[in-house]
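quick one: dinuclear copper ion bound model?
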Amino acid sequence: MFDHDDYTRPADAGDRWSRMAFAGLSRSGAMLLALAALVVFAVTCRSATPDDDAGDLAASTYVPVGEWDAYYAFLSGGQSGSVFVYGLPSGRFIRQIPVFEPRAAYGYANMPGTEAYERLAATGGFWGDTHHPILSETGGDYDGRFLWINDKANGRIARIELDTFETVEVKRIPNLYGTHGVAVVSPDTSYVIANGEFEGEIPRRDPEPEGYRSIMAFLDPISLDPRFEVLLPGNADINDTSKDGRWAFTTIYNLERGLTVEEMIQRDEDAIAAIDIHAAERALERGEYAEIGGVRVIDPEQTTEKLLYLIPVPKNPHGCDVDPTGTYVMGSGKLSPTVTVIEIAKIDQVESPRLAVVAEPEVGLGPLHTTFDGRGNAYTSLFVDSQIVKWNIAKAVAGDPEYIVDRVDVHYNVGHTQATLAETMHPTGEYLLSLNKLSKDMFLPVGPTMPENQELIDISGERMRLLSSFPSEPEPHDVVFMRAEDLIPHVIQTEELGPDAVADGESRIERVGPDEVHVYMTAIRSKYGLSSFTVKQGDRVTLRATNVETIRDMSHGLAIDSYGINIALDPGQTREVTFVADKPGTYWYYCTWFCSALHLEMRGRMLVEPR
Ligand code: CUA
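yep, here:
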């Protein structure tokens, strides 16, 4: 179906593999062996920056008490289903944003009858596997509005508002299985793109491997509903876009259409797929799509205008990264020691997509992701070598053999790596984070499950300097940064009282039906608007509460003993929960945020009269 002439093995591919010095083994066997060996027996040399004095290193990440970090780092929470927020360079953990999991502390999805709970229940449940945080852009720079994150486990995507750091939308993406790579279409976030990494039958019916396809969904950035989807061969992995709104790229592995790991690594080449977004939009206008699951789905084989280009990349490539100038898209080889550099302007201008490849520098074993400093250098994570390698893009493209600039050991087995603002058109080239998959002996042992290890690297000079490491819960995959000064003006610290707020002095209970009551309640230091309210057993109770505080950091909670209720309320915030008062007796409600010296006294009684 796709032009397999584009996948014939180049003449020098054998050389490349023979250089990997696993003579006597099949290539794929050698690679699996190498991966396994290095995972299990990684060397334990931790003095990675021997030239630096410990005091100098400590000073370079020290942020004095009361002062703020220069960067926000948003790390995906992996199977924690959330987003972790750290300050850099200190490595201070400052927030966990719950997305696909309940979090009682923030009153997020922790009880039925709340908006967040019902949204998770309707889209796939109460856990998620988050991989790739992405930030909204205007003019190719971060605008501080939104962060999106995938849930690989349930085909979902979520939108977080950065003024409140709260999840405001979660959608399941139709026709898509295993949401993996996500990116915004630069420079103005015209779409959010999401890959369905798992190929499957579309729509999901009887298991029928012959018909399996992957998909890239082009989503409305606000509603997260697909505007259209494009069918792809193989497994669509990581994606990125050009800087001019025209191209969406994704690495593709398993063009073999294999169902086992052995079958998936037969070919020496897979691809980066380039989707011409404007051509896809024209195909939609011509009606060249099928409506599947309520979504317009384009099969690139069925369009009159070419919109899908498959550029050969060895072998089971992973990272897909566009450089800040928008000149190149790069695929990191994973099972090949190379990064494939593709000149974007050539993609639709050359006779064979292979001719758009302008360099294939060898960087080391297990290259997974590549990031940029904005000064012409690329930094590639090497999973097998446990290194970050810095290399010069122009030298690699010019064929200068001296393209490697520096290497630094990381601990251990790095997956994603990201430099500060590298996904924008204006990277700051200050720091790089190495998100290491294994921490092994790096921290105090806490049982057989180890924390994950992030390592902060100074990339402002010619040589890299490993500054510090900071652990986190399992298991971050990727990170994006915002300069503190760019985000702080967007962050609100008290909410405006909304039209649904319960005003001070308006706390009350209203019976609206024979077994239905509405309770309106304010919270302020350190009392509730009602010191008690009485309902009948079996009543459906809708409890609306407003924190009428007007100063920052004065949160209150409203938990009801034995009823599984905890409403958390930021200053100015109103929230509502509906529940059935099915147990008779006295139930104290109390404040769950320590708000004053009379915090313990901040409570009242729900009296449930037996029917
Ligand atoms: Cu309000 Cu403690």
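Confidence is low (pLDDT under 50) at residues 1-48.
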